[in-house]
Amino acid sequence: MGRYLTLAACQMGPIPKHASRRETVERLVCMLENAAKAGAELVVFPEMGLTTFFPRWLIEDDLEIESYFESSFPSSDTEPLFAAARKLRLGFALSYCERADEGNEKRRFNTMSLVSAEGEIIGRYRKIHVPGTETVEPGFTPHLERRYFLPGDLGFPVFSYRGIGIGLAICNDRRWPETYRMLALNGADIVLLGYNTPFFLEEAPEMAHLRMFHNHLPMQAGAYQNALWVAAAAKAGVEEGQFLIGGSCIIAPSGEMAALAQSLGDEMIVHRADLDFVQLCRKANFDFDRYRRPDQYRSIGERRAALARPI
Ligand code: CDV
């Protein structure tokens, strides 16, 4: 008998600025219940699944910024999610804004935690590729993640969920091949990903028609080139005046779309992921151990930008 894990990606319609944590958590619990009814064993939610995507605004008031962050996870507000996981016997990955001070240093990360079907934290990932700017720049759609978040400092950990290697990634991470390769090298069979992607970018209006293509292209390539499953959940629709693309999906290790959301609102997609297919794709397409040449790739680990001109 083959090995399977039933994955659900829970796309969310907008989370308004005024929504309380309790309201949003109730909404997430409802989605967990629906996912359990559909037979899901592991669920992924979008980036910033507890709040609106506040980095679209320049906020000066530190108290207001704080209101978007969690200083503990679970907290009394988020505990119902953990209770639901225990009751429904399914795990989930949720992304939120993490406050993790060290001594006097205020540290804020864009974080995703993986929670077991026993309602215990399995592990945590902090977004490595933090896009946008520190201040509002003319000609750019305001996206101030770099003002509010430090880049992740935990590398690309892979966690065991029922003996299956699970990697986590957040939004802009999905566009970088290094994300999938690092997770694959660390033993991932499945990558869970959450995102918030604005449809319109002032800096590149001529590429607006490619937003969905550029959403799926790197995830399908990442799944194929590393022979792993990708389950990705979007925030979608008009959130506080900004249109976020949906396109939540589950992608097979062959690079094929296995499930795709059709709406711009709350929508769950489910797929029974065949884990033996991972092994088949590795053997047929990408046998790392036999064919990779890390000694020839050294500059990937050493050089950040391309050379101005060839050597
Ligand atoms: N939340 C994100 O990381 N969004 C980026 C946008 C700013 C390009 C993304 O890659 O979708």
Compile the SSE list and pairings.
Blueprint: E1 4-11, H1 21-37, E2 42-44, H2 62-66, E3 69-70, H3 79-88, E4 91-99, E5 108-115, E6 121-126, H4 145-148, E7 158-161, E8 164-170, H5 177-185, E9 190-196, H6 211-226, E10 229-235, E11 237-239, E12 242-244, E13 249-251, E14 257-260, E15 267-274, H7 276-284, H8 288-291, H9 298-302
Parallel strand pairs: 1-2, 2-4, 3-4, 8-9, 9-10
Antiparallel strand pairs: 1-15, 4-5, 5-6, 7-8, 10-13, 11-12, 13-14
The structure holds 3-methyl-2-ureido-butyric acid.
The site of 3-methyl-2-ureido-butyric acid (CDV) has 10 residues, from strand 9.
Largest sheet: 7 strands, mixed
**What is the total tally of β strands?**
15
Question: Helix coverage percent of residues?
Answer: 25-40%
**Residues in β-strands, percent:** 25-35%
CATH class: Alpha Beta
Counting helices, strands and paired strands, the structural category is: alpha/beta
CATH architecture: 4-Layer Sandwich
Shape: globular
Instruction: Write down the overall mean pLDDT.
Output: 97
**CATH fold category name:** Nitrilase/N-carbamoyl-D-aminoacid amidohydrolase
Distance between the termini: 53 Å
Q: Which regions have little confidence, pLDDT < 50, spanning 5+ residues?
A: none
